[in-house]
Every structure is written in structure tokens, then in C-alpha cells.
Amino acid sequence: MRLTCTVNGTEQQVDDVWEGESLLYVLRERMGLPGSKNACEQGECGSCTVYLDGLPVCACLVAAGQAEGREVGTVEALADADALHPVQQAFVDAGAVQCGFCTPGLLVATHDLITRHGRPSDAETREALAGNLCRCTGYEKILDAVRLAADRMAGTAAGAGTEAGGDR
Amino acid sequence: MEFLQPTTWAEALEARAAHPDAVPICGGTDVMVGINFGHLRPAQLLDLTRVADLREWTTEEHAVRLGAGVSYARVITELGDRLPGLAMAARTIGSPQIRNRGTVGGNLATASPAGDAHPALLAADAVVEVASVRGSRRIPVTDFYTGPKRNAMDADELVAAVHITPPSGPQQYSKIGTRNAMVIAVAAFGLALHPDRRTVGTGIGSAAPTPRRAPAAEEFLAGELDAAGLWESRAELPAGLAARFGELVAGSAAPIDDVRGTAGYRLHALSVMARRTLTWAWAEHRTASGNDSAKEV
């Protein structure tokens, strides 16, 4: 079947999609967007987390046809051409990346968390990231990265109206 | 494989009637796992996510009519105050990603004995509304589960909604797993105290071939509360009452040994969860009493 949906702001159309295929397979194998990772294929690990109509979901559990006409946002769209997104930069700076396989899913889940909560408590972070498994870091560095990203993003938001002009 | 994508409820029922072997899919949290692992190869997938009616909830005759396609995330954020027991169960489900997709309708259609919503629905005397091109009918949730992953629906029927009356008293939910998130329950228990009717509702999960109630425990507790005038006095529960309630709840279970736990562990866990949830619910009932008397004074 043919699938048409908006991915990272651009309308995409792919043909010969098998009806039982997941959105994850379509993104990785048909649209050339391998950022979302394929690991458990059962919604357990969160490494394929993408936005579907603005909500974080496991792309492996979305049937391709269910994305018809919908808006999909992947980890590829977080950074702009020149710079990493503050969430990505915080993961680098805090050492929250080891093998990196879980990272794309954690970045999307963290982006959603900070967008909704601003500066989440540690308990809110643990709850929000409960569906993203990391087998390397032990999660402490990930919590550091979330705090760092939230602080920096809050600073940017506050700075826009106050310090930014004077400091520069 | 064919991908059927009705956009109205009438079209969905027609598609169901034409393809009784089609597998309905909503959040996909069970169906896609089956397809990804090659266990499920239906001739048709019947996608229900385009049917707007299914994603709505309304209030009808004092009860909430919860559309089958409302996600667990929305049960928590939009109905946490009205349906506390179900919202508590919803908070234990999967992860944010799973709660954004999974639905109560899917839980009912799958009818797994381990489905997290079932104990809360049983305790709250929920009623399932199913429909086909022949019309719709309502099935008390107590009669809905007919066997492991089997339910009382005919081949041409779909779950339309579930009707749940907001409670007159406290509700509680408890679930045992190896961690808080992303677990299939080893055992689960839902409790509802109904002071208006002077009855007690219970629901057992993951400890019998189907989700089921614990009638002996319900009758015992309601009887004891009645006999001692505790519904009104809201005094402390007599020593040993909650523990006896827990034993009777475990007595209604029929668990098996499996990869998630042994039958013996499940029985023990159920008796503990029933005792604890009653203790929590009764504390809430007593606090409500304190507020009332404060007002009267």
C-alpha cells in the first residue's frame, strides 16, 4: 500500500508498504531515517520513541497505515543545521551516552518531558523515562543530563526577556 | 494482508461484519507485538484509530461512558478525579509511550487475565457496551470474561465503550511486578467501597484463568461493616478484619505457576494487597468522615 505522512515537517510518500509493517520499519528502511533504533520490537525498550501527532510513542507498535496523514517527529529533527539541541548537548556534556543505542529514544522522551514540565523533579524524570532502557550508564548520568538540559532551557527562556541583552 | 481503515463507527461495524476474522487494532500495544514476532498474520487488520466516536468520553445518567479508543494517558489526565480506581490502574501500565497508545477497549477485547484495567472495572461494577451491525448490547463486566483471552463478544462485534459510575466511596488498586514500569502483573487487586449501596467491589488480576471478583470476601466485608455500624460510624476496623478479608480474596483466586511467579506467591501477594488496599481505602473513608463532622459542628 501507499503511505503518505508528514515526517519532520516534510510530506513523505512511500509505496509498496506491507500492511503489517511498523512505522519504525518505514522510517528506517524506506525513508532513510535510521535515528530511531530497532531493538525489542515490543514496546519495552523505548529506543524507537518518536512523536506521533505530538505524543511520544513506540514507533515499533504503530502500524504503518495508522500513520497515514499524521505528523511524525523523529530524533533527526531535534538538532538544527548548526547546533545540537540543548537536550542533545546536555547528554554529550553529562556523559549520558555510552554505546548510544538507547540515546535517540531517550532524547525524544527527554525533549517531551522538558517541553511539558519545564524543570521536572527527579521523580517526574524517573517516571517519564521509565519506558526507556539503558544497559550502559546506570541512569545516573542520564538524570544529570536531564537536569542540565532543563536548567539550560529554562535559562534560555528566562534570558530572552532579561539578561540576554545586557550580557551581550 | 489487508488494511481496513474505517472512518465512522457504522463503517467499522460493517467491516467487522464482512470480516469476522479481521484483527481490530487501536493502540497496537498487543497486536503489533504479535505481528512483529510473526505470531500473528491476520488476513485483515481493522484499524479503529480513525473512528472519532471511539476516542470520546461523555457523561450519561451519572455514569461515564468511556469510548473504547480513549488512551490510558487520557484516563489519567481527564478522568483521574471521576474514575480514581481505573486511573490508578492506568498509572501502573507500561510507560508514557504505552499509555499514550493503549486503550481500555483494547484491554477488554484482548481479555488477558493479566490486563491491568480489569480489576478496577470489576470492582467498580463497570458495564461493557458492545456493538455490531445487528445493534448494540450491554454486558456487565463480571460476565464479560469467559476464558483466558476470551470474552463474551460475538465474532461480528466490537467494543464500543465501557460505562463506569463514579464512586460514592474510596477506590484502590495494587499491582505486583518486578519493577514499577513495563511489567505484566504477577498479581493485581482492585477494591471499591460503595457506602451508598453498603456493598464492596473487588477485582483479581493475573491469578485465575480470567479476571474475576472475590464474592466471599465482598460479602464478608460488607456484612461485618454493616453489623458493627461501621459504614456510618467510620470507626477503626476491628483487629484482624482486613487480614481476614485478604485471606478470603486469596481464596477466590485460582493461580498457576508460570514464568512470572508461582501460584503460592500469587496467593500470598493477593492476601497482602487486599489487606493493604482495604486499610488505605478505609483510612480515606474515615478522613471523609472527619470533614463531614467538622462541617456539622
What does this structure look like?
The complex is a heterodimer of chains A (168) and B (297). Chain A has 168 residues and is an alpha+beta fold. Chain A has helices at 23-30, 86-94, 103-117, 122-128, 140-159, 163-167, and strands at residues 3-7, 10-14, 49-52, 55-58, 71-73. Chain A has two domains: 3-76, Ubiquitin-like (UB roll) (Roll), CATH 3.10.20; 86-157, DNA polymerase, domain 1 (Orthogonal Bundle), CATH 1.10.150. Chain A has six helices and five strands. Chain B folds into two domains: 53-164, Uridine Diphospho-n-acetylenolpyruvylglucosamine Reductase, domain 3 (2-Layer Sandwich), CATH 3.30.465.10; 170-288, CO dehydrogenase flavoprotein, C-terminal domain (Enolase-like, domain 1). In chain B, a hairpin with a 2-residue loop joins β8 and β9 (150-151). In chain B, α4 runs antiparallel to α7 and α8 runs antiparallel to α10. At the A-B interface, β4 of A face α2 and α5 of B. Chain B: InterPro entries: CO_DH_flav_C, CO_DH_flav_C_dom_sf, Diverse_Substr_Oxidored, FAD-bd_PCMH, FAD-bd_PCMH-like_sf, FAD-bd_PCMH_sub1, FAD-bd_PCMH_sub2, Mopterin_DH_FAD-bd. Chain B: GO terms for molecular function: FAD binding; oxidoreductase activity. Chain B: It comes from Modestobacter marinus.
SSE topology sketch:
The complex is a heterodimer of chains A (168) and B (297).
Chain A lengths: L2 E5 L2 E5 L8 H8 L18 E4 L2 E4 L12 E3 L12 H9 L8 H15 L4 H7 L11 H20 L3 H5 L1
Chain B lengths: L1 E3 L4 H10 L4 E3 L5 H6 L7 E4 L9 E4 L2 E5 L4 H8 L4 H8 L4 H4 L4 H7 L6 H7 L3 E6 L2 E6 L4 E3 L2 E2 L6 E7 L6 E6 L10 E8 L4 E7 L9 H13 L2 H4 L7 H11 L11 H34 L1
Parallel strand pairs in B: 1-3, 2-3
Antiparallel strand pairs in B: 4-5, 5-10, 6-7, 6-10, 8-9, 11-12, 12-13
